[in-house]
Design a protein that fits this description.
This protein has 2 helices and 10 strands. The protein is α/β, with parallel strands linked by helices and about 120 residues long. A hairpin with a 4-residue loop joins strand 7 (about 90-95) and strand 8. It starts with 5 loop residues before the first strand and ends with a strand. About 30% of the residues are buried.
Length: about 120
């Protein structure tokens, strides 16, 4: 298998799960942009108030070090370095009175900041 292979819906693929709600939101964004090739890219980088921060973007390109996971009919793209920090995580899309946003529940995080976009290991 190469780094850019698409892995079908399977918990063991990378132990990163996309909820139905997150997949539905990606489909809405694909329709709004009129681009069925869009994929949800999730990254982890240094920064934020807790040491690491999550990033979300829509992308059509796959890099050499990317893993592409297809779940619930949408593609999730994660680079290898971020994948190590996301193993076991669940990516969700949550709407409440205050905001609507993608959120990650990461069992590796020892603490998170109030906004939920920054975490420590």
């Amino acid at each position: 298998m190469t780094a850019t292979d698409t892995v079908p819906d399977a918990a063991s693929a990378a132990d990163v799960q996309l909820t139905q709600s997150a997949a539905a939101r990606v489909r809405v964004l694909m329709e709004a942009e009129d681009n069925p090739a869009l994929m949800l890219r999730v990254t982890v980088s240094g920064g934020g108030c807790s040491g690491f921060q999550y990033g979300f973007d829509l992308d059509t390109k796959i890099q050499d070090d990317d893993r592409v996971l297809e779940q619930h009919g949408v593609k999730l793209v994660v680079d290898e370095a971020s994948l190590d920090l996301l193993r076991g995580s669940e990516i969700d899309f949550v709407e409440d009175l205050m905001a609507a946003a993608f959120q990650i529940r990461n069992p590796q995080a020892t603490s998170t900041c109030g906004c939920g976009n920054s975490f420590a290991l």
